[in-house]
């Protein structure tokens, strides 16, 4: 579509890069595939943006949206309720671990993260620890773009334009075992060290000032860093010792992505808050949620108590109806079980790429993988800025797409290719992903 750049301001996009060429315009989806305006087919290796977990083209989700819009298009959750929000909150509470029973709906992930930080602050103000306002998160982690969520985000490149940000957002090391600064030969010792870095940061800042730690079950940015063994057990101990809330940011890692409804369940830890969005509706309508424990809601249950926060479209009736229909699909087709049954095959298929000189590390869990590209496998030497520019932005993203695979070549940390296909994907899709990557990465190597 020739006029795509005339008025449309695309997100995180170098608009000038399209001045000569056409903007790829996706018009249709079915299962694990999408089609562009010229009719070309692509395997959706990223489920849109870690979103379309149930796959494209589910007319029953579209019908659920239409039915709800016809019945009640909109009503706020500000002192009123509507049936689909009530039902969905109950349904979610039944799926969450422990007493995470209180569902505060938003329209997306940044708002969920924003709400979680606000709740942490308000909770401590109401329980006699008013100086606890800081948050800890990890280097290179992405937690959203609104000012609070952006402050929690650990990617300097997307923050500097907007500084000064919200004060009190402290950063600690992530769990990149491939580039572990310590204990690179011992995942358990590394996990213990990385978790203890959180404890040390709390000590440095002053335990009376720290409200919450925000962690993804598997950190996305940087290319899928799963938690080393024992990491979350130790983090939980530290949070308990210092009375700091543990927020599991599962905007990507919930709704089956890791073979469980929630990533915290997969790794066996109990958060105080889960933030979620994306796959909750499989993208058929926008929705997010902050899910809090009963304990955190208690101070707001007094006669005049209130969490003074809200957004107009949080828990939109159409989105809630779609989420319920989406969860019906999940249950009927056991999508979560499907991921568990197939994740080893997905991993094994991607690991075939280790025979390419450019593939340094294949890491992830469930249907969520990062493939780190390196210049030298033995030394793990990475690419310099100019090479990254030429290779990732100049060549790989476009070449993969032209070869029929939509995924993401990302160098916000070290250069990685990120994969998160719809949860319906099976061996034929894994093979297609592997073959396209093999061809394009082989070409990329010759360009270095
Ligand atoms: C872990 C995490 N948190 C928060 C967000 C922000 O979500 P949204 O883009 O829906 O605001 C994202 C988005 O990718 C995310 O991956």
TrEMBL record:
<dbReference type="InterPro" id="IPR015421">
    <property type="entry name" value="PyrdxlP-dep_Trfase_major"/>
</dbReference>
<dbReference type="InterPro" id="IPR015424">
    <property type="entry name" value="PyrdxlP-dep_Trfase"/>
</dbReference>
<dbReference type="InterPro" id="IPR015422">
    <property type="entry name" value="PyrdxlP-dep_Trfase_small"/>
</dbReference>
<dbReference type="GO" id="GO:0030170">
    <property type="term" value="F:pyridoxal phosphate binding"/>
</dbReference>
<keyword id="KW-0808">Transferase</keyword>
<comment type="similarity">
    <text>Belongs to the class-III pyridoxal-phosphate-dependent aminotransferase family.</text>
</comment>
<dbReference type="InterPro" id="IPR005814">
    <property type="entry name" value="Aminotrans_3"/>
</dbReference>
<protein>
    <submittedName>
        <fullName>Aspartate aminotransferase family protein</fullName>
    </submittedName>
</protein>
<keyword id="KW-0663">Pyridoxal phosphate</keyword>
<dbReference type="Pfam" id="PF00202">
    <property type="entry name" value="Aminotran_3"/>
</dbReference>
<keyword id="KW-0032">Aminotransferase</keyword>
<dbReference type="GO" id="GO:0008483">
    <property type="term" value="F:transaminase activity"/>
</dbReference>
């Amino acid at each position: 579509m020739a006029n795509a750049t005339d008025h449309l301001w695309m997100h995180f996009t170098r608009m000038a890069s399209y001045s000569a060429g056409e903007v790829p315009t996706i018009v249709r989806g079915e299962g694990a595939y999408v089609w562009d305006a010229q009719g070309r087919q692509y395997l959706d290796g990223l489920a849109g943006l870690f979103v379309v977990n149930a796959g494209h083209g589910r007319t029953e989700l579209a019908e659920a949206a239409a039915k709800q819009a016809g019945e009640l298009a909109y009503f706020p959750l500000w002192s009123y309720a509507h049936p689909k929000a009530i039902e969905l909150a109950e349904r979610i509470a039944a799926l969450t671990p422990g007493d995470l029973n209180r569902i505060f709906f938003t329209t997306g992930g940044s708002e969920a993260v924003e709400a979680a930080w606000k709740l942490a602050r308000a909770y401590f103000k109401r329980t006699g620890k008013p100086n606890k306002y800081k948050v800890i998160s990890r280097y290179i982690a992405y937690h959203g773009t609104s000012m609070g969520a952006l402050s929690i985000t650990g990617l300097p490149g997307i923050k500097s334009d907007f500084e000064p940000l919200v004060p009190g957002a402290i950063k600690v090391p992530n769990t990149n075992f491939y580039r572990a600064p310590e204990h690179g030969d011992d995942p358990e010792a590394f996990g213990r060290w990385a978790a203890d870095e959180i404890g040390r940061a709390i000590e440095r800042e002053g335990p009376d000032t720290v409200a919450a730690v925000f962690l993804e079950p598997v950190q996305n940015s940087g290319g899928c860093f799963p938690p080393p063994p024992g990491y979350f057990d130790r983090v939980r101990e530290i949070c308990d010792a210092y009375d700091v809330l543990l927020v599991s940011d599962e905007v990507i890692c919930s709704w089956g992505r890791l073979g469980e409804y929630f990533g915290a369940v997969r790794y066996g830890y109990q958060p105080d808050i889960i933030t979620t969005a994306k796959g909750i509706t499989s993208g058929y309508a926008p929705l997010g949620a902050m899910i809090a424990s009963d304990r955190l809601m208690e101070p707001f249950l007094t006669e005049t108590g209130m969490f003074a926060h809200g957004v107009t479209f949080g828990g939109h009736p159409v989105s809630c109806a779609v989420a319920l229909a989406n969860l019906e699909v999940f249950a009927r087709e056991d999508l979560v079980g499907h991921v568990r049954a197939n994740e080893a095959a997905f991993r094994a298929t991607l690991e075939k790429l280790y025979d390419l000189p450019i593939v340094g590390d294949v890491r992830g869990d469930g249907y969520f993988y990062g493939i780190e590209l390196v210049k030298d496998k033995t030394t793990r030497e990475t690419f310099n800025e100019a090479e990254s520019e030429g290779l990732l932005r100049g060549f790989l993203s476009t070449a993969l797409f032209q070869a029929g695979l939509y995924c993401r070549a990302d160098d916000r940390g070290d250069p990685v290719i990120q994969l998160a296909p719809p949860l319906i994907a099976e061996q034929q899709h894994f093979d297609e992903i592997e073959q396209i990557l093999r061809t394009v990465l082989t070409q990329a190597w010759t360009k270095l």
